[in-house]
Design brief:
By secondary structure, the protein is an all-beta fold. It has four domains: about 90 residues, Immunoglobulin-like (Sandwich), CATH 2.60.40; about 80 residues, Immunoglobulins (Immunoglobulin-like), CATH 2.60.40; about 90 residues, Sandwich (Immunoglobulin-like); about 100 residues, Sandwich (Immunoglobulin-like), CATH 2.60.40.10. About 0% of the residues lie in helices and about 35% in strands. A hairpin with a 4-residue loop joins β26 and β27. The radius of gyration is 50 Å and the shape is elongated.
Length: about 450
C-alpha cells in the first residue's frame, strides 16, 4: 500500500479527499506532532527530577515519524542560577528524557517542543515545585578586596539567599583585624543590611564575616578579606654595581646607593649592613664610617670579597633589600699606568714683512701661537686614579695647566730671517700610587716671510 498524506494547509499542499485507493482500501493521515511534557510534580529541594516526553507524538490513524525533542527552562525562582544547560541526560536538552536538579526552592516551568521533519508542535509546559523543608540560608560575603587606609570599603552580601525564598537578615562581623587597628564589629556601617561598609584605619588584612538569618535558622558564616595598604608605594634600593677596588684605594671601600629612589618622591633614609666578609676578616657593621649615608665608606681588613646590603625607607615603607659585592684587590698586584701624550703638532706662521728703498725687506716677529695637547688617552689597567704632569725642558713654552690631562700650550713670539723653524718637545708623565710612565710629543712652528 502506498499512503497518501493529508498535510495541513500552509505546511505543504492540500490533498483533497486524503484517501488512498490502494489495495487495502485503508487511509493513513499525516498529523502534526503534539508535545506532552508530563504531569506537574512537587519535589524536595536537591532531588533529581526526571522529565519524560514519550507520550508525545501523534494519535491513532496518523502516520508515525521520527521526532526530535527540545526541553527548555521557561521560568525559574528569582535566585536560581539554572538554565537549559542544567538538563543532564546525554549532555543535551534534545532528548526524549531529561533530568535536572532544582537549586533553590520555588516553581520551575519546563517547556517541551516536539518536531518531525515537516513541522513542530506547540510547546507544552510542566511545573515542578521544589520545597526546601527546613533548609538553612546561605551567606555570601562577596569578593576579597584591596583598599587603602581611610577608603570606604563596600561589603556585598547580596549573593546570600534562602532556599525557601524567605526574607533574610544580615549580621556582619570583623572576625580579625591587624594589630594596629582599633576597629571592631561596631565599626561596620549599615549593619543588618546586605550592603554594609567599613573604613580601615591602618595597613594589614581584615577578615570580614557574614551570617544570614531566615527567621528560623542561621547560615554558616562566609568570609571575605580586605587587604589594606597605606597608598604609599615603597621605595627602591639601589646598592650600585658589583665591582673591585683598585690597588691604590687604600683600606677603604667606597659604596654608592645614590641611585635609590622613591616613586612618590619622598626623602629617603639609608641603612647599609655587611652581609659577608672574607675568611679571617674581623670586619662588622662598625667598619662603616656612616651606615646611614647614601655613599658611605667601609674599612676593609683582609683581601677578598665583601658583600653589602642596602635598604631605604620613605618614612612609611622600607624597600626590598638590594645587594652589592666588592672585591678588594691585593695592592701587590698593581699595574703600571700607560702615558699617551697625543699627536705631535706642526704649523706654519707668516710674518708681516715690508720692503724699503733699495729693496731691503724687514719682517715683524711671528706672533705667539696657542696649542691644545690632549693626554686623556692615558690609562691605568687597574682603574687607579692617575696624576698628570706636562713639562718642557727649555722653559720657553707657557704650559697653562700642567697637572691636567688636557692642557693649553702658548709659544713665545718668533723672529724670522726668511724662514725659521722652532722645535719643542713636550713630556707627559702619568702616575698612580706606586708607578709612573712617560710619553713625549713634538711641537714645530715655522715662521716664514709673508709672500
Amino acid at each position: 500500500m502506498t499512503p497518501i498524506r493529508c498535510v495541513p494547509l500552509g505546511i505543504l499542499v492540500a490533498l483533497i479527499g486524503c484517501s488512498d485507493k490502494g489495495d487495502s482500501g485503508t487511509t493513513e493521515l499525516y498529523c502534526s506532532p503534539t508535545a506532552s511534557a508530563g504531569p506537574d510534580e512537587s519535589v524536595e529541594l536537591g532531588d533529581e527530577v526526571g522529565l519524560d516526553a514519550s507520550a508525545s507524538g501523534v494519535g491513532e490513524g496518523c502516520e508515525a515519524h521520527d521526532y526530535s525533542y527540545t526541553w527548555s527552562l521557561e521560568t525559574t525562582p528569582a535566585v536560581s542560577e539554572l538554565d537549559s544547560t542544567a538538563f543532564s541526560v546525554n549532555g543535551t536538552a534534545d532528548a526524549i528524557e531529561a533530568e535536572f536538579t532544582p537549586d533553590v526552592a520555588g516553581s520551575y516551568v519546563i517547556g517541551l517542543v516536539v518536531c518531525d521533519e515537516l513541522e513542530c508542535s506547540s510547546p507544552d509546559m510542566v511545573v515542578i515545585t521544589a520545597s526546601a523543608g527546613d533548609a538553612a540560608p546561605i551567606a555570601d560575603a562577596g569578593d576579597d578586596q584591596d583598599a587603602e587606609i581611610g577608603d570606604r570599603v563596600n561589603l556585598d552580601g547580596t549573593g546570600s539567599f534562602d532556599p525557601d525564598g524567605d526574607e533574610l537578615s544580615y549580621t556582619w562581623t570583623l572576625a580579625e583585624v591587624p594589630g594596629c587597628s582599633a576597629l571592631d564589629s561596631g565599626d561596620v556601617y549599615d549593619q543588618g543590611t546586605a550592603d554594609a561598609s567599613m573604613v580601615p584605619d591602618c595597613e594589614g588584612t581584615y577578615l570580614v564575616s557574614l551570617v544570614v538569618d531566615d527567621g528560623d535558622q542561621w547560615s554558616e558564616p562566609d568570609y571575605a578579606t580586605v587587604t589594606v595598604s597605606s597608598g604609599d608605594e615603597p621605595p627602591i634600593a639601589d646598592a650600585g654595581e658589583s665591582n673591585s677596588t683598585s690597588p691604590c684605594t687604600g683600606s677603604w671601600i667606597e659604596l654608592d646607593g645614590a641611585g635609590s629612589y622613591d616613586p612618590d618622591a619622598e626623602p629617603l633614609t639609608y641603612e647599609w649592613s655587611l652581609v659577608s666578609a672574607p675568611a679571617g676578616s674581623a670586619a662588622s657593621d662598625a667598619n662603616f664610617d656612616d651606615a646611614s649615608d647614601a655613599t658611605p665608606s667601609f674599612q676593609w681588613d683582609v683581601i677578598g670579597d665583601y658583600s653589602f646590603q642596602l635598604q631605604v625607607s620613605d618614612g612609611v615603607s622600607w624597600s626590598a633589600p638590594d645587594g652589592v659585592t666588592v672585591t678588594v684587590v691585593d695592592p701587590d698586584d698593581n699595574n703600571r699606568p700607560v702615558a699617551n701624550a697625543g699627536a705631535s703638532q706642526s704649523v706654519e706662521v707668516e710674518a708681516e714683512c715690508t720692503a724699503s728703498e733699495g729693496y731691503t725687506i724687514t719682517c715683524e716677529d711671528c706672533d705667539a701661537q696657542e696649542f691644545v695637547f690632549d693626554g686623556s688617552s692615558s690609562y691605568d689597567a687597574d682603574g687607579d686614579a692617575i696624576n698628570f704632569v706636562w713639562t718642557e725642558e727649555t722653559g720657553e713654552l707657557d704650559i697653562v695647566s700642567p697637572a691636567t690631562a688636557v692642557t693649553t700650550v702658548i709659544t713665545p713670539s718668533m723672529s724670522t730671517d726668511g724662514s725659521t723653524s722652532y722645535d719643542w718637545t713636550l713630556n707627559l708623565q702619568v702616575a698612580d700610587c706606586d708607578y709612573d710612565d712617560e710619553d713625549t710629543v713634538s711641537l714645530t712652528v715655522s715662521c716664514v716671510r709673508e709672500e
